[in-house]
């Protein structure tokens, strides 16, 4: 049995969390879809990402680069439960791309179509972590004392 922790940060194993959602291509809530889509980005599951994207906003393809995903933090949700037809999830994702550490902050919109939650679109911005902010890599240290140091992935 695979005991790999789920990349979404739930604390559960991949097989007890986002794995079944991605395999069945069905999430029970907008947040569950958001978490599974983050996991799909980490695992480069293009098939699932495209399948879980609303047809009105879905790109024709997804390309992966050298991005290293560091962690997902859910800030809040509005609607998006089993009985809703739409919902939003606000989250932050830390990542390293091109040797630079960044934080993506997005408010994603989700919609139920044919009884399936789908990602519609979102409003996002990408920032550099503040020097005194907790390091996005999850070390527990401040950014200036961790990934911002010269020679570190974000420094």
Report on the architecture of this protein.
The protein has 155 residues and is α+β, with helices and mostly antiparallel strands. The protein is built from 3 helices and 4 strands; from the N terminus they run αααββββ. A 4-stranded antiparallel sheet has the order 1-2-3-4, with helices on one face. Strand 1 and strand 2 form a beta hairpin. Helix 1 (18-24) crosses helix 2 (30-43). The longest helix has 14 residues, at 30-43. The protein is globular, with a radius of gyration of 16 Å. The protein starts with 17 loop residues before the first helix and ends in a 28-residue tail after the last strand. The model has no long low-confidence stretch (mean pLDDT 90).
Q: Can you list the strand order of the major beta sheet?
A: 1-2-3-4
* Strand runs, count: 4
Largest sheet: 4 strands, antiparallel
Task: Compute the CA-based radius of gyration.
Answer: 16 Å
Helicity range? 10-25%
Distance between the termini: 38 Å
Percent of residues in β-strands: 25-35%
Indicate the structural class. alpha+beta
What is the overall number of helices? 3
- Anisotropy-based shape: globular
H and E order? HHHEEEE
Mean pLDDT: 90
Low-confidence parts: none
Short description:
This protein is an alpha+beta fold. It has helices at residues 18-24, 30-43, 46-51, and strands at 68-79, 86-97, 100-113, 116-127.
Q: Could you name the key traits of this structure?
A:
155 residues; alpha+beta; 4-stranded antiparallel beta sheet; 3 helices; 4 strands
